Amino acid sequence: xxxxxxxxxxxxxxxxxxxxxxxxxxxxxxxxxxxxxxxxxxxxxxxxxxxxxxxxxxxxxxxxxxxxxxxxxxxxxxxxxxxxxxxxxxxxxxxxxxxxxxxxxxxxxxxxxxxxxxxxxxxxxxxxxxxxxxxxxxxxxxxxxxxxxxxxxxxxxxxxxxxxxxxxxxxxxxxxxxxxxxxxxxxxxxxxxxxxxxxxxxxxxxxxxxxxxxxxxxxxxxxxxxxxxxxxxxxxxxxxxxxxxxxxxxxxxxxxxxxxxxxxxxxxxx
Length: 270
Prior knowledge:
alpha/beta, Rossmann fold
């Protein structure tokens, strides 16, 4: 893809980077990313991928914008309260960068539609706030052979893990199955500092760009954790589990399943 004069100017700070250049920027413009969740994590992910010139962004979210979302879901505005999140996010992306095409999915990602949707994208991003979605998305990535950037936030902490199917640990290698309902507090019960979504979502967007550009070391087999109170980052080494039910040597999960779980949670860091 040959860049136009306007694109050369818009993406000039990328093009100046030897690791990106015109070739890398063209690759981004030809790439596609599915962002599952247009909330706290999905907001910075979508905005930064759009600003970077990722050519096609899919947005999955069944919810409407609520006033309580605005403390952390920065892609939405007060005037958007009551609108579908995917439509609100689409409009902000259009204002930011007309190079980017947005596809809206204003319904939940489920076992019966996930593979068809994911098959249209190069990379998956988990911006969801519930275990049901996180386990489904993990299994989806493995079964469709799509790179996935996982994240979770709660209170003052967050975590990020990049999953390359058959090349490293997946989410189930760390957490084999969803915890019992009520075992982990939700954001509505425990709260979350709004800016944590920005920190973690921006790291997710960085991982996506590195995947698309094929540059740098990814958070594969490394769970990155961030705690805002002491301002500490920690890399927790993880390994692919040969007994993992979805990515192990003898997988027992060979098709997608739906789960029922509470929202806005992240498991304890091992």
